[in-house]
Amino acid sequence: MHNIFQKYYNYVIFFFLGLISMSSHGFDRVTGENFTSRSEVIAAHGMVASSHPLATQIGLEILKQGGSAVDAAIAVNAALGLMEPTGNGIGGDLFAIVWDAKTRKLYGLNASGPAPEKLSLEYFQNNNLSEYPEFGPLPVTVPGVVAGWSELHSKFGKLPIKHLFKPTIKYAKDGFPVTETIAYYFELNKQRFQDYPNFKEVWMANGDVPKTGEIFKNPALGRTLEILSEQ
């Protein structure tokens, strides 16, 4: 009996090690290199890539509804401002490179904003600042995202811009589950930003920053997008 169990035990260990060996490569395509990510994505009618699955889905829906690639990009960008606010938002800059297949022309857009008009050298000197601080309002330029959306849409858009904001407005009001990565950065920066006006009101409405899987809402952002879509 002992020998039978010993053989079975050896078999299980061998099988387990075999599974480790098969899964340790970390790729699903044969390239000869370990950990070279997933297989390439190939599509006939278009594709959307973003850092958040919900944002990507929004972009795909815009394409299915007859929107242009720029329409989809604007819709995705708006969604990321809600779903990944740690790296996106209407308070930032926008840069775009657009290839027009019909005219075979490449267009570039720099929608980075200028420094605030009244932020002078004297202000820094009077406040004993020898350089821009890393955080806070002082290092922030005038936001260029909204103007960038407008420029791109006026030249390459097909669907009404109001239509592009609809999905994000709905998620802003109804809520969406916070991903692990965003929850991590919320927690990482909580102590740094919680004393800034409006931060607690928006990001700590329930007393703490959102955790992984929690449903987060930002109705104020949804209303902002509604106002923009009416302009």
Automatic annotation (TrEMBL):
InterPro entries to which the protein is assigned, alphabetical: GGT-like_enzyme, Ntn_hydrolases_N
Pfam families per UniProt: G_glu_transpept (PF01019)
Coiled coil start-end: none
PANTHER family: GAMMA-GLUTAMYLTRANSPEPTIDASE (AFU_ORTHOLOGUE AFUA_4G13580)
Official protein name in the record: Gamma-glutamyltransferase
